Fold this protein.
Amino acid sequence: MPSIFPSEEWLIELKDYINQDEKYAHIARNWEGDLIFHIEPTGALVEPLCFYLDLWHGKCRSIRMVPAGDPTEAAFDLTASYENIVKVLKGKLDPMQAMLTRKLGVKGSMPYMMRNVPTVLEFVRCVQDVTDKVLGD
Amino acid sequence: MQPILTIDLTTGETGVIEIPSDWQRDYLGGASLAARILFDAITLELDPLSPEAPLLFLNGPLSGTSGPTVGRFVVCAKSPATGLWGESNCGGFWGVELRKTGFDGLLLTGKSEGPVYLFVDDGEVDIRPADHLWGQDTYTVQDSVNAEIKGRAARVLGIGLAGENLLPAALLLADHGRVAGRTGMGAVLGSKLVKAIAVRGSHPIPVADAEGYDPLRSAANRALKTDNFTLTLRELGSASAADYFDYLGEMPKKHFQSGVMEGVERISGATISETILVGYSACHACVVACGRVVQLPGEKHKRKGPEYETLMGFGSNLWIDDAAFVTRMGEICDTYGMDSISVSNTLGLAFTLFELGILTREDTGGLALEWGNHDIVERLLHMIPAREGFGAHLAEGARALGRRHAAEDRAVQVNGLEVAYHDPRGASGMALVYATSPRGACHNQSDYFLVDIGQVEDTLGMEFYERQAGAEKAANVAKHQDWRTIFNSLVICYFGNVPPETVLNLINAACGLDWTLEQMMLCGERGWNLKRLINNRLGLSRANDTLPKAFLEPMPDGGSAGYIVPFEEMLLAYYAARGWDWETGRPSAAKLVELGLKWTLEPL
């Protein structure tokens, strides 16, 4: 049974999916950078939520929820409302559109990010592929 | 708004024009208001380089108010490059300083007996001899003029050799290399024998509701400062998305003939930032600061760094991957006062024709135009503004060069203006933008390539279509053109990723209006159609709404390989969305009435 977003099970599923996806492995083969997603509570999400991914050379080395107050830092900090994250997960909001229309905040090396847009888009495809159901559906 | 200063260069007489309040409301300012003011004067018979031709510099209601990216002005005339509506806008500080003189605009007519420069010092106008300045480059002339002015330095806008020699690609340059680059406005100023215009003022910038405006502009700037697009532009410059554009097959290479190029990453904004970037530069009160300051290897002095169009024009377009070389070519264009897009595009055509054997060494004065040859490119750049040898042929632009060699279809231009470096095969909305822009193939009447990768303003009713979608995006393109027409009226830089609601609130406070988003967009549509009407009068019809042959053939490789733009279907849908007549290429009478342009029906 597919896991629901957001949950620990969903994170594990995402890690496994990324690590077996050949297209992602190829396009992201040079990517070196971890990310923290900050999800602001809107809609069905009532508390802020945060998770961490360590992406390295086309693989996901680790993934976990980050509890409130945890000092974990990453190369990239991404912030969006739950509603907009769900739109991205369901393919109703393009990730570049989210970036360009003030719906997704990004902190980190812009040169690196702009050089690796295809990697970002492939990552989002993987995320969409593993998401069948989200909180609030 | 403040009045417009008029100067008749033939007689030396000056005057002022007060703009009727209904014109201010209907067109706001900038390019749309310029179109209204010049509507009667720009005729088919008018020679754009004759004394009779008017040249109008105009600010918008937001210019100089320290709002988000609003330090710009427009310059408009009949274009010597296209024979159509000419419009170019420019950042820096000159336009703001003009507003501080107590005038929102400056209208030049006539022709001076000999070279002059103009000095507008608050309300005073001085026309001064400039024989000794004629021949100076666009940076030197700023220093020379200021050396002759007592007191605080003025802001100086000038032309270089290209403007003096009336090149269709001649531009106007002010400040630290901010240019009104396209449609040959520098040639129009040169035709009047005006080398430069210095402005210095101390008047406050008028705003209808200052108490309401100030907190709005502060909030807008704070939001803009942390916007993703802003952060990207500041860190990487206007070539920030070059790598992505390359991936999509949207970045032209080898004069729009190749989809891939080894080493192309060496001319991206990211590479510039990581190698030669040493600082940023900004226009008046701008929080984006897209301008690059670079230091080339082995040099101690700093230079203006290249923006996207120059990087691609003298880089991938000419099969060159050397950012330092491109930087120097951009600087040469600036000092001579030449538009780097038009000149590099024309060079690309020359290299193409040479490769095809259509051009030979006999034509080029013995030069072998081989792709990637730095020395040849630099040599030609010096020959073009001087109209020296083969440079004289290049000086007339791509359409003329193509015609000269019975190869006009090889020129990548629309209506006489060379295409900017965004390939519609990678972002199909640009097909309609290039074909229908009022000033020829241009990315500054709509930067729809950004919409095609996601910059979609849904509060304006815009939708996100796949980047290689066809007719279904036509109405979206029209809507974006209207939105950007508002920008060109205000005058806001496209790099200001400001939400429509914020723009609306700024307009209402600055102009004392109580508009809705719909009314704002109607104003944009009105401006777009008014420029279209001017062009119709100048002979433009549907036959002019075309694309160069290069874009109607598939790219052999790269991110847009194999895709052919379904242009005819897109244009048909665009006409329907616009309410334009398919037979004549003109806005329908019903559309004109809807837009409050019924008054134009009689002259047509």
About this structure: The beta strands of chain A are 4-5, 32-40, 49-56, 59-65, 76-81, 105-107, 133-134. The first helix of chain A runs from residue 8 to 20. Chain A has six helices and seven strands.
